[in-house]
Amino acid sequence: MENAARQGEVLHAGLAALQAEFPQVIGSVQGRGLVAGVHVTRPGSEEPDGDLAFRVVERCMEKGLLMFSPVGFGGATVKIAPPLCITTEAVQEGISVLREAFAELT
Fold first, then answer.
1. How far apart, in whole angstroms, are the C-alpha atoms of residue 73 and residue 93?
2. What is the pLDDT of residues 9-26, one digit of tens each?
C-alpha cells in the first residue's frame, strides 16, 4: 500500500503536467492513488471526443503501453490502473508514452 500511495503521487503529478501541456484536448484528470481517468475532449470545447480517446489508447498500445478501452461519457475517458507494485520508472515511462501519443495525434 505504501508503494501504491507513492506511485499514485507520481502518476497524478505526471497526469497534471500532461493536462497542462494539452489543455485543448484533456478536459480533466480524475482519480485517486493508482487509478485515474483522463477525459479527452474535442479541441477547445467540453464535448467528449471518444474517437481521439480511442486513437490515443491505440497509439499507446502500438508503443508497448497496454491500456484499457476508453470508458465513461462518450467513451472519452482513458482509464489508467497500473499494478500496485509498479515502479517510479515504469510510471514515468507510461506518462511519457501517453505524452507521445497525445503529441502525435493532436
1. 27
2. 999 999 999 999 999 999
Structural domain count, the chain: 1
Which domain CATH number covers 46?
3.90.1150.10
Q: In 22-105, which ranges are continuous DSSP H helix? A: 50-62, 88-105
- pTM exceeding the 0.85 threshold for the entire prediction: yes
Structural domain for 47, as ranges: 2-105
Rounded Cα distance between 106 and 101, Å, is 9
Environment class of residue 9 by beta-carbon count within 10 Å: exposed (0-12), middle (13-18) or buried (19+)?
A: middle
